[in-house]
Here is the input.
Amino acid sequence: LTAAIGFGGMFAMNSYIAPTFTEVTGQPASIVPVVMFLLGVAGLIGTPLGGRLVDWSVLRTIAIGLGGLALNLALFTVTSRWLIPAIVSVMLCSVCAGLLVVSLQLRLMTVAGDAKNLGAASNHAALNVANALGAWLGGVVLAAGYGYTAPSWVGVALA
Here is the structure.
């Protein structure tokens, strides 16, 4: 459930990142691939950082990942009007997501006992649910007319 709901926050923001950067930040559509690339780079930073942190404490790393994700999603709603601060907050979200994926994966494989493959697969399945849940709930608030920063507030609630 932590992966399916908590990580849904990342997907709530990420699913609507293109219109947020074009409509709220006021950038041309050509910035979107750059933002997505930087989001990926930040995730690559978060993943090995998460690997180091889980050696310290898996559960604390999950808490740091979720808390950091919620904090940075909220930060994105505030900074989304300015290009550089918006990119930085999106990248921080992705670093936290990297922490979260690694720690959730290890936690599920640990509690799975002899069924480690099932534990790993369940994390992947939960992330697919998170993708659907975050995008759907983000779409609900957009359809209600709350604007392109609203999906990130949904993300805060999910994280």
